[in-house]
Amino acid sequence: MTKLITLVSALLLTLGMGTASAGVYSSNEVLNQAHYQFSKQQVLTMVDSSEVQTQLEALGVSPADAKSRINDMTQNELTALNEQMNNMPAGGIVGAIVTVLAVVALLDLLGVTDVYPFIRPINS
């Protein structure tokens, strides 16, 4: 009887345990992902400022659309955008807005996004 209980217990424990899997991640991959998230958060925080929102609305882009497009940006696009913003002189908020809008227009041309109804994708 003890053997039967031991056997049933072992069987239940074996069936009840899931399998675990692990992958190997390099430090560069982890750092790149962290940098991507930080870059995205920087740009999203910039869009939250009232000055940027006012300028976006004046240009006909809703802040919600801008945030959606920023969330869809690739790591390379965000890195390029942040490099441009970091190289701008202080107080260049208008330049930052124009850069964001230019990137969104480029994404519209490539067919990745559809923010501006007057821009038709290149492939269509």
Helix content: 55-70%
Average predicted local confidence, pLDDT: 74
Main sheet characteristics: none
Amino-to-carboxy terminus distance: 74 Å
Structural class label: mainly alpha
Specify the overall morphology: elongated
Tally of individual helices? 6
Beta content comes to under 5%
Give me the count of strands. Answer: 0
Please provide the ordered H/E string of secondary-structure elements. HHHHHH
Report Rg.
24 Å
Q: Indicate the low-confidence ranges by residue numbers.
A: none
InterPro entries: PA2779-like (IPR046735)
Keywords: Membrane, Signal, Transmembrane, Transmembrane helix
Signal peptide: 1-22
Pfam families: DUF6627
Give an overview of the whole structure.
It comes from Paraglaciecola chathamensis S18K6. InterPro entries: PA2779-like. This is PA2779 family protein. Keywords: Membrane, Signal, Transmembrane, Transmembrane helix. The chain has 124 residues and is mostly helical. It is built from six helices and no strands. Helix 2 runs antiparallel to helix 4, helix 2 packs across helix 5 and helix 3 packs across helix 6. The chain is elongated and about 80 Å long. The termini are far apart. The model has no long low-confidence stretch (mean pLDDT 74).
